[in-house]
Design goal:
The protein is of the alpha+beta class. The chain has 2 domains: 145 residues, FAS1 domain, CATH 2.30.180.10; 185 residues, FAS1 domain. Helix content is 30%, strand content 22%. The protein is built from 15 helices and 14 strands. It binds 2-acetamido-2-deoxy-beta-D-glucopyranose (12 copies). This is FAS1 domain-containing protein.
Length: 380
Amino acid sequence: MLYKNFLPLALASVASAQTPSLTDALGSLNSSLSSLNALLGSNSQITDALNNLQNVTVLAPSNDALNALDGDTARLLTNSDYLQALLNYHVLNGTYYNTSFGDDSVFIPTALTNETYTNVTGGQVVEARLNDNNVTFFSALKQNASIVTPNVNFTGGTIHIINSLLVIPQNVSETLSNANLSAAEGAINTANLTDSIGNTHDITIFAPNNDAFNAIGSLVSNLTSDQLTSILGYHVINGSVNYSTQLENSTLTTVNGDDITITVVNGTVYVNSAKVTVPDILLENGVVHVIDQVLNPDNTSAAPDTTATTATPAFTDASTGTAGIPFTSGITTPTTTFPAATSAGGPAESSSSSGAAMPMKTGAVGAAALFGGAAVFVNL
Ligand SMILES: *[C@@H]1O[C@H](CO)[C@@H](O)[C@H](O)[C@H]1NC(C)=O
Ligand SMILES: *[C@@H]1O[C@H](CO)[C@@H](O)[C@H](O)[C@H]1NC(C)=O
Ligand SMILES: *[C@@H]1O[C@H](CO)[C@@H](O)[C@H](O)[C@H]1NC(C)=O
Ligand SMILES: *[C@@H]1O[C@H](CO)[C@@H](O)[C@H](O)[C@H]1NC(C)=O
Ligand SMILES: *[C@@H]1O[C@H](CO)[C@@H](O)[C@H](O)[C@H]1NC(C)=O
Ligand SMILES: *[C@@H]1O[C@H](CO)[C@@H](O)[C@H](O)[C@H]1NC(C)=O
Ligand SMILES: *[C@@H]1O[C@H](CO)[C@@H](O)[C@H](O)[C@H]1NC(C)=O
Ligand SMILES: *[C@@H]1O[C@H](CO)[C@@H](O)[C@H](O)[C@H]1NC(C)=O
Ligand SMILES: *[C@@H]1O[C@H](CO)[C@@H](O)[C@H](O)[C@H]1NC(C)=O
Ligand SMILES: *[C@@H]1O[C@H](CO)[C@@H](O)[C@H](O)[C@H]1NC(C)=O
Ligand SMILES: *[C@@H]1O[C@H](CO)[C@@H](O)[C@H](O)[C@H]1NC(C)=O
Ligand SMILES: *[C@@H]1O[C@H](CO)[C@@H](O)[C@H](O)[C@H]1NC(C)=O
């Protein structure tokens, strides 16, 4: 009787000795996580919320990750609302040990669900996969963070220490700008679609790169407002976020009303005749895939030529214009980059003038390689 009553207690104390709370587990890693622990220690509300999480994976940024932040960004973390959102983005929904990941990308929902910061159903996601045998997470403009210490268990799941902060995905304008998709950004502005695309819940955008717009420069100056609106709408899927893992041979109905045809050949995704050159740039409200042609709603049967080295534009009678890259006049080079708080109610000092370099600094692949020589990314 007595024995029977004691047993569960004894087991409970053994269990709790083996599996610490989140705070205790992070504390036991203090030699790598003292900066994170100090941030948490200063905010009991966030700590309590984190300690209540169950069945999650916490991606804990190392001291090196936090110490690499510039002054503006570090100051941003003193904003309690922003810190909460950023930490929530580091909490994956589900317990994923480091052995859960393979060479193929998965898109995992996080605890970042606050509509001030995200407008995708089920919570903002991170992309995860093996990268040269290291488990790597990709956020926003594909900034990457790799696991340096895996599988530290706590009562609500597991912790991985990562070597860089995740970046909360930005709104459409900021993302296109920072991804050097200035012609697409300018075209959307010209058509007055910035708000309607930016405020939509769950969106997929196929964004032609600047070379694609340049290739049809002769046509662009003669487009009517209605034609431009129709063409741009033909690049947008409303109401669903189609990460690359969800793109398969099929048709998708665009905002313009016409269908696009998705063809996947050997892992390369085509949209009509255009090739996806950079997949899965994350947006506050969805995802952007960069393509190498402007899609033509009057040429919906354009099919991929998978053996061609240079694509035939879907606008067959257009040619390169003489006036420079279309739609880019008045589009400024990136000024705000990390971490997207200007559009999300963060403090004024979040707007940095340090250019696009900072968030890419920690990535294995810099902005130039990503968006200039996009081919390197196709099969990652
Ligand atoms: C972590 O280490 C710092 C000094 O590096 C110390 O001030 C702090 O109290 C430690 N925190 C925990 C939770 O052990
Ligand atoms: C969402 O974020 C805003 C701004 O940071 C904050 O004021 C609000 O309390 C948050 N909402 C929830 C439900 O946490
Ligand atoms: C944990 O979360 C994952 C992902 O949401 C889910 O598939 C799984 O069923 C959950 N497990 C438990 C024990 O709740
Ligand atoms: C996963 O973690 C274990 C240690 O717990 C390590 O031996 C293994 O190499 C890791 N695997 C990957 C893919 O990082
Ligand atoms: C995790 O996902 C489940 C559904 O899959 C949802 O009910 C739950 O609220 C999510 N948890 C967090 C912390 O977002
Ligand atoms: C993989 O992780 C190890 C240990 O952190 C690191 O030395 C190596 O540079 C990483 N490789 C890549 C490709 O990130
Ligand atoms: C955490 O739990 C998993 C699953 O039980 C186990 O594989 C892993 O070894 C544990 N981590 C440590 C550091 O013991
Ligand atoms: C955008 O709005 C301006 C001002 O309201 C208008 O002159 C212009 O025609 C509009 N452009 C399109 C493509 O609708
Ligand atoms: C999210 O979407 C709703 C409805 O589409 C919109 O009203 C709201 O402004 C959006 N929020 C953000 C942060 O974009
Ligand atoms: C615009 O259309 C007019 C009339 O069709 C044509 O003469 C002109 O060459 C076109 N402009 C360009 C830049 O193609
Ligand atoms: C998709 O279509 C292409 C072209 O018709 C074909 O080569 C490929 O095998 C198809 N993929 C699947 C999974 O059916
Ligand atoms: C797909 O890849 C295989 C092996 O690399 C190659 O033999 C085949 O021709 C490719 N198919 C197409 C349609 O490019």
